[in-house]
Structure prediction request, 226 residues.
Amino acid sequence: MRIDILTIFPEMFEGPFTCSMIKRAQERNLVEIHLHDIRDYTLDKHKRVDDYAYGPGAGMVMMVQPIGDLIKKLTSERDYDEIIYTSPDGHTFNQATANTLSLKGNIIILCGHYKGIDQRLRDKYFTMEISVGDYVLTGGELAAMIISDAVIRLIPGVLNDETSALTDSFQDGLLSPPVYTRPVEFEGMRVPDILLSGNDRMIEEWRMEQAIEKTKKLRPDIFKND
Prediction:
């Protein structure tokens, strides 16, 4: 997989993309991540990438020219399965979307800023618009990191145990059941006896029951929609 990220703050990615699973995925050549500074493509002599919006009201808008030129450059070099814009009014990112994106070959992610991008860019170039939640960030860089992390960990070979991702929360429409590790007893609280029984079938039944109850309690919206 190749991920091209369009941003005005490429330095923000240095920490998250050089650690843990994302670092491992790149070292194993399972994913290529390319950061592109939008300011490198602006024709403005002051390296501006924003301008005033038409009409009254406060706030700036990301300029058409540098983003359009950068996307045209990238798409002239290879085909992309998805061109994604991170925006508060996009489709809310979820596990199903992460699963779908993990099967793609090449994707572009544009990190939104200010009041957004010119609508003509949205109409012409973008195949998906994604929000990571019903709140507003100072920029789309954090959203791009979240999307990338959720997608990359699903690529076969990234996790040491590839079956681990299949039991994550949301994969089956439920939250994950409680998990325990040693010691058996901690401050008067014991690991449930069923987990010590060695009966795999009963343990799986218990886990499913716990997942259902947990989802009903903590995320009834998910349970109703399941």
In short: The mean pLDDT is 93. The chain has seven helices and nine strands.
